[in-house]
Structures are given as C-alpha cells and as structure tokens.
Amino acid sequence: MRVSSQLPPQAPPVPNRPAPPPNSDNPLEADSFVFDFPSNYPAPPAELYELPKDEAPRLNRPVLLVHGFNGDPGNWLNMRTWLTRSGENKDGGVIQANANIDPQGKVFTMQFARPFNPVSNNSAELRQAINNITAATGSSEIDVVAHSMGGLDTRLYLDQGDEKVDKLVMIATPNHGSVLADIELTFRELGIPIMPSTDDPLVRQALTDCSEERGDNNPLLAQLNKNWARQKSRAEIFVITGNGRPTLANRFTLTLRGDGVVPQKSAHMDGVPQRNVWWTNHSGVKEHPDALLMTGAFLTGRALPVQQDEPPDVPAAKEIVPQQINADKDQLNYVIKQ
Predict the structure, then answer these.
(1) Average pLDDT in the 46-70 region?
(2) Number of domains the chain contains
(3) Which of 144, 154, 162 is nearest to 120 (CA)?
(4) What is the C-alpha separation between 325 and 322, in angstroms, rounded?
C-alpha cells in the first residue's frame, strides 16, 4: 500500500524508568572486549523486563511477530504476552508458512523452516504466511513486528511487490549490516567450530545477508537500500534500536551507540521515525517495556513518545587497533592496542 511520507505526531515524553547508569569505568577504555557471535547471541530471560502496566491497545489488523537469525518463536514471549494479555487481541499461536490459521486470531508468531536460513528463503515463507493470515482472517492487510534479520526478511517481501503489510516495526534490524556477521563468516570459512554446529551454504548466505554493508560484499543490502524509497512507499515503517552496549561500528571502531550486535547507525533508515532504548542489548530491546508501548502505539496510529535525550557523558566512538582476535565456539574476543 502507498502511505503518506508524513511522520506520526509526537506525544510528550513518557515518564523515565530508572535506567542503569553506565559502568563507572569507561567500557571503551578496556583492554579487551568479548562479543557473542550472531549464531549464539543469548536471549535475555523474559523476566528481566517487567511488562507495561498499561494494557495493550486493541489492534486494527492481525499482527505477525517475526524473529531474527537463529531465533525462534519463544523470543517474543513478552511482546506476545502483553499484546494478548487483556483478551482484546486473541493469540493466534505459532505458525509456519503453510499452517492452518485461526480466523479469530490477532497476534501470530512466525516459525521459519530453519532458524538460520537466508533472507530470500525467509521472505518466501513470510509471503505464504501473510497470504494465509489474510485469507483466513478476512483482513486485506496485516502488520509485522520484526526483530533483527526479520526486518530484512520483511523488507525484501515489501520490495518484491504484491505486498499485504500496512505497518512494519523493525527492532534492532541491521539495515546496513553487522560486522559480527562478517567475522563469524570468516571463522566458519577457516573451519573454526561455531555454535550452532550446522554449517552449510544457506547458513553462510544468511551471515552474508547480515554482514556489514561496504563495497560489493553484501548484494542483498545494496539492493534493499537502493530500493528503500519503494519499500517505505508500500508500508508505514518504524525503527527501534537498543543502545549503550559496546558495539563494533566496523572492524576498527567501537561505539556505545549500539546494542552489542547492531550499531545505531546501521539500524537507522531515512524518512521513518526512530526511537532508541538505552542500556539494552540486541535481544533485550524487543523485551523492554518502552519498546512494547511504542510498538502498540505505532500499530494503532497513536502518538509516539518523543525521543528521550541521550544520556549524558556517553563517550564518542573510539578507533581501536586489534592486537589479537580469537574465539571459542560461542564468543569472539577482541584484544586491542591502546
């Protein structure tokens, strides 16, 4: 569908929840940093974040929750629980591409055939699922809430046309890639065992799809970003990012304006509203109560809160010179030269 380029109205800021202060020792001054590979990025326990006290609004259309690389439907526990808690929005359950659809369902959770397939495979499954949801519920369109790579899956779906999505929320999506995907891909090509142990051309293509956008190394992102105007003409889009975690902006730059996997600049896309949730990591941002409230507001056309000010004294991005890069099956260790 074609939407107006006008951004949603802004409401006054919501009251700030107490946020954990930055570590008293500047994390950018450490001698080494340990990052989790995308294939093994830990999901935070759902109870880490309390659900909003306010009930979720009644949804205008069915909503499909789409997980990211190596994710699963359980990643959406907080979002699904909150959206369906009052009973206004019926939980339609976990669905696959060809699943039977509850015609009364309002909140569906996507399960791909494999959790680490490339964007092209996932986008095709997404198309089948969306067609099935619209056919079963009688709704001409649905809304999508996507985490991480799930946002890329949905962008490709939009780019290919014949779309049936009214609104898209992208949470921590690497719209310009993540250098951690490049590094994991390199380690896999060197034969260093990474978890999960599954390693085939589809896994490697998925990592390529999420890799840092530079030159011609990522044809998928080059295509999607070239066609960005087309995608945002076909759905109304909102971006949410996590921030305040040491993140590789590229192989030689470290920033706190990121979620540990995706730097804020990678998630940013021109011409759509964006909100940043501070002191929240890549998995946690989709669990955070502020992200839930903002998602509910956007999906129902309500005013978004204004962007909260950046916390004071967040240090600037810092150039780093890796002295040593090593890894075990789960983590990547950057030893840097000061």
Answers:
(1) 91
(2) 1
(3) 154
(4) 7
Average pLDDT over residues 196-205: 89
For residues 283 and 289, the answer to whether their CB atoms sit within 8 Å is no
pLDDT confidence of residue 217: 86
Distance CA 207, CA 119 (A): 10
Task: Give the chain's radius of gyration (CA, Å).
Answer: 19
Report the alpha-carbon distance of residue 112 to residue 126 in Å, rounded. Answer: 8
Residue 282 lies in a domain: yes
- pLDDT for position 312: 84
In a domain, 88, yes or no: yes
Answer whether residue 232 is part of any domain.
yes
Q: Which domain holds residue 274?
A: 25-337
Say if 7 falls within a structural domain: no
CA atoms within 13 A on the CB side of 39: 29
* CATH for 268: 3.40.50.1820
Q: What is the pTM of this model?
A: 0.91
Annotate 272-309 with b (16+ C-beta within 10 A) or e (fewer).
bbbbbbbbbbbbbbbbbbbbbbbbbbbbeeeebbeeee
Angstrom CA distances, 190 to 13, 69, 194, 321, stand at 49, 21, 11, 22
160-171 pLDDT, tens digit each: 999 999 999 999
pLDDT tens, 246-284?
A: 999 998 899 999 999 999 999 999 999 999 999 999 999
